[in-house]
Amino acid sequence: MNWNSASSVQLVVRDLNEIAADAYRHRIRSGLKKGGNGVYDRSNGGLEYTLPGKFSSNSRARFELTDVRAEFISLRAVSLHDPSCFVTAVVDGRGSLRSISLPSRQTVSEDRGPVSQAQAFVRPQPAVRRTAVFSEEH
After folding, report:
1. Residue range 43-59, pLDDT digits in tens
2. Number of domains observed in the structure of the chain
3. Is residue 65 part of a domain?
4. 76 lies in some domain
5. Residues 6+ apart with CB under 8 A from 122
């Protein structure tokens, strides 16, 4: 990935969102259907979330789970071209990316969930959530 290219980073974040959606689907499935039974780990009698093979890598990055807890999972995407370039993210209990950390900056959602701090992240930039507004006026 070229960290000077915002579009490359956006594509990786999109990939992380797809993994987050898959993890959430696992979380809400019952244990009888090989789901998490309401959690990401085994604490509620279901199966622990594992990264499916289709999400392990693509042409941009290699993806890995770094932590699996009942209420959140941590992900890491590592560039295939430069292993020193990576993106980390935390997926909350609603399947949303709670925080996204890049080597040069950190983006945190409005609800201020668990965010890991590191020396490299000196300029926090809040994520912007925009609600879609549909009007019937023509």
Report:
1. 999 999 999 999 999 99
2. 1
3. yes
4. yes
5. 105
